[in-house]
Amino acid sequence: MENQGIRDARALGMPKMLVLGLQHMFAMFGATILVPALTGLSVSATLLFAGLGTLLFHFLAKGKVPAFLGSSFAYLAGYAAIAPAGEAELLPYACVGVACSGLLYLVLAALVKSFGTQRIMRFFPPVVTGPIIICIGMTLANSAINNCTGHWAVALLAIVTVVIFNIWGKGMLKIIPILMGVLVSYAFAALLGQVDFSGVAAASWIGLPVKVENTVFSLIGNCDTNLLVTAIIAIMPIAFATMIEHIGDICAISSTVGENFIEDPGLHRTLMGDGLATALASLFGAPANTTYGENTGVLALTKVYDPRVVRLAAVFAILASFCPKFSALIAAMPTGTIGGVSLILYGMISAIGVRNLVENQVDLSKSRNVIVASLIMSLGLGITFSAAGAIAFNVGSLTIRFSGLAVAAITGIVVNAILPDKDYVFSHDYQNGKK
b/e per residue, 175-194, with b = 16+ CB within 10 A? Predict the structure, then answer.
């Protein structure tokens, strides 16, 4: 039965539409700005391309899907592999890898359009994507602990705040626990004198959100080819997990709204929108984009399904990106706050992988499924935490490094395709995790 929601928000009047748009922006806000805070990417560029990416997605999806595209957490491991300390000179290389992964969306979109969703998705079953998502969260856990050691009291307050609002919060507060965890622990750290606001005081109120030195274009004429190839190979396979995540999110939005967006405007169009938005954002030094579950929660809460409200949120995000003082405020965030919030966040990523296996009823009594899952997790975690941190080999003058996640993803897809007795059949009711 179709949900009885509001498809045309104009009936509510412009003031309420603006408020609903602001609510969507705040719903995505905490998670979206946390990615640049964790990676060293620009907060301003992140907000700008979250807004522009959302508008591009809506254009390619014929304006029918009420989805917001915010920062993807799945790529955090990719950024960490290339720029572990958020080194400004290394981040453009990671962004090239993410941009190339966005192009994989276009390949999958073309295949879906040509052969149909079911025939393509059999190569990406939950027994492959679930363990990959588990590995993504686990490879990041070490950095969360390191940040927590900066000040455990601040970190613990962030954790407790997130838990309280997530479990006992009401209304809007319940769907922004990450943002509340950041705000409460940040304020506590400021009271303790642990926050340096000098950068905030020096920053301008208005400025351009993108700096050339932070973009991929800064590598022109000054590029380390070995590192560039390594970044592409290390990060591109993450798209295999995020593309499945995208499909799960579109199914979730379809279920919430009561319309089959897999069929109309079509999965190939939504994949194309997400992929191009990710590639565009990465070229200009912003994180990869992904459809946001927080905003799907707002749809369910308000019962207002008009995509124009989401497009208003995108416009608000673009306007916010032109405030450097706000970016400086994010840059001043204490490590204890980052550590506490990310400790929960990274664990949730792995938990989503587990849920992926459980909800899709992956039969781990079958040896072939156990073999696929075990190879992915052993290679993904084993290589990442080995002394070398990657598998390296030379091709002519190039030294190519395969990250643990890259090896795990490729191995899982190939082994699953080769082994007999496959039992997974994709359906349009397929559900998956968020971000």
Answer: bbbbbbbbebbbebbeeeeb
Give the model's pLDDT for residue 89: 92
Q: Where are the beta strands (DSSP E) in 210-338?
A: 289-291
3-state per-residue secondary structure call for 58-106:
HHHCCCCCCCCEEECCCCHHHHHHHCCCCCCCCHHHHHHHHHHHHHHHH
pLDDT in tens, 402-416: 778 778 888 998 999
Give me the helix-helix angle, 126-148 and 335-359, nearest 10°: 160
Cα–Cα separations (whole angstroms), residue 94 to 54, 79, 179, 381, 383? 22, 6, 26, 20, 19
| Token digits of residue 71 | 């920062």
- Give first-to-last CA distance, the chain, whole Å: 28
Tell the residue number behind the tokens 């990959």, with chain if given. Answer: 132
Q: What is the dihedral of CA 89, 97, 409, 387, to 10 degrees?
A: -20
Cα distance between residue 424 and residue 360, in whole Å: 9
Over residues 250-294, the pLDDT tens digits come to 877 887 788 888 888 999 999 999 999 999 999 999 999 988 876
Long-range contacts, 176-180 (Cβ 8 Å, 24+): 176/26, 176/27, 176/29, 176/30, 176/294, 178/30, 178/31, 178/34, 178/341, 178/345, 179/26, 179/29, 179/30, 179/31, 180/30
What is the token pair recorded at 435? 């971000």
Q: How far apart are CA 135 and CA 374, in angstroms?
A: 11
With residues binned 3-state (H G I as helix, E B as strand, rest as coil), the percentages for the chain, rounded to 5, are 70, 5, 25
Contact residues for 416 (Cβ-Cβ < 8 A; gap 6+) = 123, 125, 127, 128, 372, 422
Pairwise CA distance, residues 22 & 141, whole Å: 32
Contacts for 397 with CB less than 8 Å, ≥ 6 apart:
none
Q: Which is it for strands 398-403 and 69-71: parallel, antiparallel or unpaired?
A: unpaired
Radius of gyration of the chain from its Cα atoms, rounded to whole angstroms = 21
Please name the residues in contact with 331: beta carbons below 8 A apart, sequence gap of 6 or more.
Answer: 37, 43, 199
Paired tokens of 398: 């190039």
